[in-house]
Amino acid sequence: MSRILIFDAYPSIREILAEELAADGSIVVPIGNPESIAGVVTAFEPDLFILDPYIRGGMRWELFDAVKEQNPKLPILLFTEASFPDPHFTQADGLLQKSYILDKLKQKIKETLQKRSSRKQDSQTISREV
To answer: Global pTM?
Structure first.
């Protein structure tokens, strides 16, 4: 069972994503307050963070940067309407254009979590060998 943290400024989007992902068996915490992200990451210990950094007409990349600094191994999927080029898009573990058809998002979540799981297994094997 995957633990997924969702940040989106729009309550309706958070609710739809949370319901869909919970129905697929994930434990989901949706949040809309950017100031609470660091505390929730620490307390919830998610396997994946879905982030829309676009808030009130601007990109809040400091949210992305703070989470990566706090937990560099936490995969971040950007789920946003923003489409202009930005270096953060290449630093994320995935990028999807917002859509109400969630099949692509669910597939990207599955792929990202599988990558994370295989990285964990590889690091555990290496530490046992040392």
So the answer is: 0.81
What is the rounded distance in angstroms from the CA atom of residue 28 to the CA atom of residue 52?
16
Hey, what are 73's tokens? 């191994």
Cβ atoms of 30 and 14 closer than 8 Å: yes
Orientation of helix 37-44 relative to helix 61-70, angle to 10°:
30
Tokens of 32: 């809309």
User: Sheet harboring 76-80: ordered strands across?
Assistant: 27-31, 3-7, 48-51, 76-80, 94-97
Per-residue pLDDT of the chain (130 residues), as tens digits, is 899 999 999 999 999 999 999 999 999 999 999 999 999 999 999 999 999 998 888 888 999 999 999 999 999 999 988 766 778 888 999 888 887 778 888 898 999 999 888 876 665 555 555 4
The domain made up of 3-129 has a fold known as: Rossmann fold (3.40.50)
Of the candidates 123, 116, 106, the one whose C-alpha atom is nearest the C-alpha of residue 46 is: 116
Other beta carbons within 10 Å of 106: 15
